[in-house]
Amino acid sequence: MKELIEYIAKSLVDHPEEVQVRELGGGSRIRLELKVAKDDMGRVIGKGGKVANSIRALLRVAAEKEGKQATLDVVEPE
Predict the structure, then answer these.
(1) CATH top-level class for 2-75?
(2) What backbone torsions phi and psi does residue 54 show, to the nearest 5 degrees?
(3) Which has fewest Cβ within 10 Å: 16, 21, 54, 65?
(4) With a cut of 50, which residues of the chain have pLDDT below it?
C-alpha cells in the first residue's frame, strides 16, 4: 500500500524526489502519512480535496483486498 501511494504521488507532483510516505501502525489498521514539497501540496490535495479523497478511496480498496483498514494523512511540509 505504501508503494501504491508513492507511485500515485510521484506521478502527480513536479518534485518526485521529495515524496515521502511513512507507514504507521500495524496489524489490520494502517495509517500512512504522505509528505510532498510545499509547491506540490495543491496538486496532491486538489480543488476542494478531490484528488486527496480519490487517493484515499484507492487506498481503501487496496487495503480491503488485503483484509485491512488504511487511512491517509497529507502532512504539511516544514
Answers:
(1) alpha beta
(2) -65, -40
(3) 65
(4) none
